[in-house]
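Predicting holo structure, flavin mononucleotide bound.
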Amino acid sequence: MSKKILIAYGTRYGATREAAEAMREALGARGSEVNVVDLKQTMPANLSGYDGIIIGSSIQAGQWMGEVKTFLIQNQQLWTAKKLAVYVSSSTAITDAASATDTYITKELDKLGITPAAARAFPGVIDLSPKSRHGWLKKTILSLIAKQQAKSSDGRLKLGEINDFRDWNAIKQFAIDFLSTL
Ligand SMILES: Cc1cc2nc3c(=O)[nH]c(=O)nc-3n(C[C@H](O)[C@H](O)[C@H](O)COP(=O)(O)O)c2cc1C
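Done. Tokens:
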């Protein structure tokens, strides 16, 4: 039977939205009815019709996007009954996805008493190009992150470039695996 799935995300620069769109494509190709919602624009009011919900967030300075946290808290009573998968787009996940999943998802959701059916930190995008939209403060933070990670990423992180570490197959497979649990 066709499943109805909500993918609700919060993004700062678009990587988390593009992951949501890739998941929509993968789930749609398998006959699911998928709604994708940017939580900054819309807070879905009625979640009762969904068989499963996927929530995604960008990580900025160790934090989830505020609108994603609000959505989780507003519907806190629902998450014990509803099938929930959670992903984040992160730079830490480039070098250590397990630790990023633990730090940014498991520990954060523990604080809210939420145990998702699936959780994954995906390597995201680090824009170190001269054309990046980051102001000087963010550029400074990012170059610090970059310097730290360049050591452990075998030089894969390039200064002066857009570093896109997204693994589209893994992103789609995450959604497909979740679908198979519904
Ligand atoms: C100012 C800034 C701070 C960031 N801080 C973190 C961080 O603390 N931990 C992390 O894993 N990634 C961090 N990142 C990396 C982002 O999470 C990554 O670029 C992600 O793909 C962005 O997703 P978005 O395009 O949906 O906003 C940071 C990025 C920026 C620009």
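The longest strand covers residues 83-90.
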